Automatic annotation (TrEMBL):
<dbReference type="InterPro" id="IPR035959">
    <property type="entry name" value="RutC-like_sf"/>
</dbReference>
<protein>
    <submittedName>
        <fullName>RidA family protein</fullName>
    </submittedName>
</protein>
<dbReference type="InterPro" id="IPR006175">
    <property type="entry name" value="YjgF/YER057c/UK114"/>
</dbReference>
<dbReference type="Pfam" id="PF01042">
    <property type="entry name" value="Ribonuc_L-PSP"/>
</dbReference>
Amino acid sequence: MAQRQNISSGSSRELVLGHSRAVRVGNQVFVAGATAGSADGAVGCTDAAARARKVFSRVETALTEAGAGFTDVVRTRVHQTNIADSGAVGAVHGEIFGEVRSVTGVVDVGALAAEDLPVEAEADALLR
């Protein structure tokens, strides 16, 4: 059986909710719950592209801690509370994953965990 590695973002919510930012099992890495939150509050509150860059920076940090990178990503999911931001968020996704060509889904949702965090991303990676 493959060993499990839980990866924390350092958020106190992880302990309360009983989750990890990422989990690696064998050659698979799963990242979820990446937002533009920081210790100082939300990043890029009025700029969808800035929010998306922060979100994917947090995804990258989790992937790196798991021994992976963007080139290992096979699937992403983006959840947004304002579908009008899809162009800006999608452009950032394209900058990062344009050559990787992961499968992706973009979902408009009614709400996420916090009002000032309107974009959340997930990524699944497969290490070769």
